[in-house]
Write the structure tokens for this entry.
Amino acid sequence: MKKLINDATQAVRESLAGLAVAHADLLRVRLDPTFVLRADAPVRGKAAVVSGGGSGHEPLHAGYVGPGMLDAACPGEIFTSPTPDQIAAATRAVDGGTGVLHLVKNYTGDVLNFELAAELCQSEGLKVEAVLIDDDVAVKDSLYTAGRRGVGATVLAEKLCGAAAARGLGLAEVAAVARAANGQARSMGLALSSCTVPAAGKPTFALGDQEMELGIGIHGEPGRQRLPLRPAREIVELMAGEVLGDLPFRRGDQVIALVNGMGATPLLELYIAAGELERVCAGRGIRIARRLVGNYITSLDMAGFSLTLLRADERLLGLWDDPVRTPALRWGA
Amino acid sequence: MKKLINDATQAVRESLAGLAVAHADLLRVRLDPTFVLRADAPVRGKAAVVSGGGSGHEPLHAGYVGPGMLDAACPGEIFTSPTPDQIAAATRAVDGGTGVLHLVKNYTGDVLNFELAAELCQSEGLKVEAVLIDDDVAVKDSLYTAGRRGVGATVLAEKLCGAAAARGLGLAEVAAVARAANGQARSMGLALSSCTVPAAGKPTFALGDQEMELGIGIHGEPGRQRLPLRPAREIVELMAGEVLGDLPFRRGDQVIALVNGMGATPLLELYIAAGELERVCAGRGIRIARRLVGNYITSLDMAGFSLTLLRADERLLGLWDDPVRTPALRWGA
């Protein structure tokens, strides 16, 4: 294993220190319990949006803290859920008096710890709502999940909810945006290589020289099947077919598309996949109205990518277009 | 080799097609000869800024086309210089009547082909100036270079010159900004793994399980030496020491810092390096006034990173802060 780290046990903490100094205009890092919050938190009167989960998926979540997106992010250790005290501390710190939305990827540990934190904060008089993200069509249950896993839709929901909250919508309305986003989004991932968790020191799984794993999870959880490597065109057709067929998306739909790199896949390749996705969607009468291409929810140094499509009405597109200013997503501000 | 491509000979062209559709609001792609230009080019009366070079370094250069940065980018095949006809076509297409600056990374093929294109355009009556970027302190001459290689300072020079041109400065003044940026910038890279060029199908070089290559080039050209893998802290001290000692940077200087991923290095690790760089600079009385952390000039799927420091006066910092709106760099607009 070759990593640009000092000590596997300190990697998350040291990375957050670098993040804090690199983006001091946008965010602050608090330690023990550890969370990242907007530099201007709490924003009085605004519904707050908090997310979190295991580290190793950067820029998710801390890279999305800032005006128009998250008020706070709770980073666990690598591929490890944040603790209830981290989540509760973040929730208290960003509550602007009108309540806090928890956006929770559907992994058993995350769900449990966000629930415990919400109960704790509610017992103190805070308003907390939680929405689960479970957009991965690959598998029903998985290594760390009952039901579907939460993947790329998390990024989209964080943006949409952040915009809704910035517009002044109340907690219930922001939560409704989260449910709408998750309900209209579907994803699938593919690995060309394993990731290597620093503390483990070796690849999480093995893939043959000409193999790919379809439906991979963002922690390297098993997908649907191993297949011989195929050209990008066929891979995207296969994955987009599964994603489109699941909701199902229909002729005339307009969507927000995320072509997401898993960490080690060059942007050159992601744009090839993006071009193929456009072709597949156009062929089915589906219009990609907005798109992101790049590393947005990664799996350390895994090679591979995922596709997320979110069926968006004009209201969601409007929220998407609202200004956002975070380390990893920024426009209009 | 596992790549998300269809055909190695078509990878650049297909990737550009994906880029074009993903960023239709910002840019256009022209084929045969191939270049990428601002959607609103030519901008009448504005000095134009054109760069280019081999592909495989994405988002460099095409990801920096847009208001406040490049007017056009000329992508060659992977790790292959663009041809004079590509460069000449781009130059003609974006000339707004007041001339075109060529920002050229110092590689023999790039230098030659940009020169030929400039001569051709000048013979047609266009004003063209060229500035070489040669910021890499690692080696004096290299596999594809006489003198020092052009690396991370290219990104910074493209931003600064784009801002100068957007302010309405004339060609000579924009070229002076480029020379100032290059003259004040120094860089060094490090590889933890080789990249694999699709057409070659195998890694460009071999590195042992516990080895790193200090001073690596962005095409995998040999660096200064191979060393046993060290903690991030020691690696950054070593590299920053070489960079700081070269100009030399001095106590009281303020700098723009780029902590750049080579393609396969997780953002989590880059932020660790960024934190270490802050510590090293602070210890020497050097203030990092602005910073970028992420994949800005890559080497396909190489694991590793590079550091670039640019000594910036208030004028350069002002240009840095000006709005920019491109696929890969965006703020204030």
In short: Chain A has two domains: 13-184, 185-311. The radius of gyration of chain A is 19 Å.
